[in-house]
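Predict both folds.
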Amino acid sequence: MKYIYKKADFNCRKCPRLKKFIDENRGKYPGFFNGPVPSFGSDDPELLIVGLAPGLKGANQNGVPFTGDYAGDLLYPTLVKYGWAQGDYVIEKGHNGLVMPKARITNAVLCVPPQNKPTGEEINTCREFLTSELSNPSIKIILTLGGVAHNSVIKALGGRVSEYKFGHTNVHNLNGAVVINSYHCSRYNTNTGRLTNEMFENIFEIIKGILE
């Protein structure tokens, strides 16, 4: 039986601040996607990757998570290298040229936030869609990119953040789910050396080891 995901309405108004920001950007950038960015990849993934939120001129422009910004320039080639993605990462609106038969990517918050910073209330409001993503029984590993994504995943799984602390390469077992943490593959983290290519690839080596 095919798993049915709960999806956000394109004109979702659950978060007034985010809806206002999207409405403003529909005026500034009429060619952008400008809506809650849907998940990308397999409908029945073994690996679910959870990021923070769409970037204004990345996923918010193209309508595909991590597409069109620096984070995607690191994430997608790494997924290809480790066999989680196939094809060419070609950035186009609504498509990035890759297929991911066993992986899926989503965000803790589906709408682009001002200054890339969603509020706690907005993260909590959007968690119903994250919970739906996490409920797919095909998932074996959940990779959280950054502390915000990690904390929202832990809460969605019914855990206490204080008991499952975020840390690069940390692995958590919670209610039958395996959660692994990575620093977010953002330009800031890579430029400052907080996350190197080798550190990011090590995450996928750990995932490989868990699944073997």
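Second protein follows, with its predicted structure tokens after the sequence.
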Amino acid sequence: MPKVLVIGDLMIDHYLWGSANRISPEAPVQVVDIDNESTVLGGAGNVVNNLRALGCNVGVISAIGKDEAGSELKEMLNSIETKSYLIEQKNRKTSKKSRIIASHSQVVRYDKESKEDITEESCHAIFEEFKFIVEDYDIVLLSDYGKGVLTSKLTLNLIEYANSKNKRVLVDPKGDDYSKYFGAYLLTPNKKEAQEATKIDIKNNDSLLDALQSLKQTANLTIPLITLSEDGIAILDENNKIINKPTVAREVYDVTGAGDTVLASLGYCLAQNLDIGKSLEFANLAAGVVVGKLGSATASLEEIEEYKSSLHKSSIDSHIKTFNEIENTVARLKKQGKKIVFTNGCFDILHRGHVQYLDTAKSFGDVLILGLNSDASVSALKGPTRPINNEDDRAYILAALESVDYVVKFTDDTPYDLIKIIQPDTLVKGGDYEGKDVVGQDIAGQLKLVDFVDGKSTTKTIEKIQKAEENENSNC
């Protein structure tokens, strides 16, 4: 997996969750009854969280205070198996932002933090640590929240040294002086930030082109880029033309941390040397996932895949899973409260009876997982002349069906081990199992039997083909 180094302003996002049903008698403000509270990594920490959700190996360099919040932050980084290189600076407050949420709406936020630039001593320590470890990483991400870690001098030194080691640097910028990011591979300003930095009012393609050109010149960027919210992400190509990757529609609950997700997902793709077009498409999908969540959030590969599937943009191959992959997928689906349906079979020559059976099976829940007999197990069941279609072809065709969400091939005589992994809410088999024991019914929540369509079967299809061949041969 990609190895990504993050440098920037670490902070803690603290949430107090509750409900507001009355007004205070002391002042015209809501009274929020707190039910629970939670903390997550924020700022550059949210970039780290997003990268870990994508499966990256992550290192992080920053400066924090010698305080309780700093200790809490270090524990949070350790809990997600991140290599952290943290400089503790005296008389500095580690950033902690507390938000009060009532009925899914943010009521107020209060911050405890230091905003001044870190000391020269801390800058030197960060730069020396960076020089020591940077060659262990594929790419460098700078997450600037304007809290003083990424000073102008330190940022320029980091980028210059990274470039000398052929390490691309991606930056989520802050402020209106982008000359501090001179030499970066790309920046990820949103439209408002880009307007402030370039002093150009972006209102059409011409002004967008001017803004992108200004960014390129100011920071000597390889890829000038501006995120445009619902209008997607725009970049300037080598021919000085705008390429716009449109976003994908989704109900927006909270845009908190969406910029972190764009930075992390671009870093994830570019660290694997994907081209910029595919990287932007991936970043758009990842951002689409996180804006559908409340608070600082992340997008896992499986969530992005599911979202892509919901937009009818996922590949058929992505619906074919291994045992390990389906275990992770099912865990996520169950957390979302989805009802899982499982069925299995050979599905050699697909016909209407199969399609109708699978459509009915899907109606018993939210997600249908199909266990597919391998070629060896089909031969054991049906004889040496079967299957007609190999397991890869059968899996691909089944995964393309609207009713089938995932296909998992199994090699055993029965799918019992697979059913143990999935723990389905409903197990579906054909009506011919009436009165018989069904493998896995001791695991599933319930068993449903579905009658087949009369006259539709793979055996009858094969017999019809053979008869047609015999007639053709007899007429020769």
